[in-house]
Amino acid sequence: MADDLSVVNGARVSFARRVDEMDEADEGLIRFLMRERHGTPFEHNAFRFHVRTPIFVAREWFRHRIGSFNEFSMRYARATDDFYVPAPEDVRTQVGKPGSYSFEPVEPEVAETTRERLKEVYEVAYRTYEELVEQGVARELARAVLPVGAYTEFYWTVNARALMNFVSLRNSETAQREIRRYAEACELFLEQRMPVTYAAFVANDRTAP
Q1: Residue 114: its pLDDT value, please?
Q2: Between β-strands 68-71 and 151-158, what pairing exists: parallel, antiparallel or unpaired?
Q3: CA dihedral 142, 145, 149, 151 (to 10 degrees)
Q4: Per-residue pLDDT tens over the stretch 120-153
Q5: Which terminal residue of the chain has fewer beta carbons within 10 Å of its beta carbon, N or C?
Q6: pLDDT for the residue 97
Q7: Rounded to the nearest 5 degrees, what angle is found at the Cα of 95, between the Cα atoms of 118 and 166?
Q8: How many CA atoms lie within 13 A of 187 on its CB side?
Q9: Secondary structure string (H, E, C) spanning the chain
Q10: How far apart are CA 205 and CA 140, in angstroms?
Q11: Spatial CB neighbours of 54, under 8 Å, sequence gap ≥ 6
Q12: What would the pLDDT profile of 56-101 be if each residue is shown by its tens digit?
């Protein structure tokens, strides 16, 4: 279970103590733990997310290794014909040097051309996939024709400490726009389920303990 009380009891076990309800002293303890970066008490809880996202976003997500992932497998299940097409305002150009990029919108006609070309590629890729499967090619091989814009889904189980690290890195101005939107949603769950911990996280410049 993910709640602020799990943090308090995770810390107080050092003194053979346990509480059943939060009080102001417990809230102060959480703020102290966050500020002084005593991180392990924030690990004794769990969030479980069911995520549906393009493969290229999932590959960034899976770099956050303190957690458990179970992903939809195109070895065992047939791929869907569902692919990521950015909204026109999300088609952007990259400006600057590696490590210090900024992103600017493109002209409307470029955005629309991009969207149409992506749809064309997706249609051909999925049609090829279906043809290979119908001819008896194993799904685990036929899937190789599908682009990283294809949607996948996975379960992600993670403790509050690792979730704060994910939010800190992925809900930031330097994160890719697509994964940032998912991180924004994850952050809302953290705020709702662990409001004291979340407030301490924000007060600590959004740095995980």
Answers
A1: 98
A2: antiparallel
A3: -10
A4: 999 999 999 999 999 999 999 999 999 999 999 9
A5: N
A6: 80
A7: 75
A8: 19
A9: CCCHHHHHHHHHHHHCCCCCCCCHHHHHHHHHHHHCCCCHHHHCCCEEEEEEEEHHHHHHHCCCCCCEEEECCCCCCCCCCCECCCCHHHCEEEECCCCCCEEEECCHHHHHHHHHHHHHHHHHHHHHHHHHHHCCCCHHHHHHHCCCCEEEEEEEEECHHHHHHHHHHHCCCCCCHHHHHHHHHHHHHHHHHCHHHHHHHHHCCCCCC
A10: 44
A11: 83, 84, 148, 149, 150, 151, 152, 178
A12: 999 999 999 999 999 999 999 999 999 999 999 999 998 888 777 8
Per the listing, tokens 């409001």 go with 195
Residue indicated by tokens 């600017």: 104
Report the amino acid identity of residue 45: N
Q: Among residues 64, 14, 65, 59, which one has the least CA distance to residue 41?
A: 14
Q: CA–CA separation, 93 vs 87, rounded Å?
A: 14
Look up residue 66 and give its two tokens: 């303190």
**170 is an active site residue:** yes
Question: Any idea which residue has 């088609």 for tokens?
Answer: 91
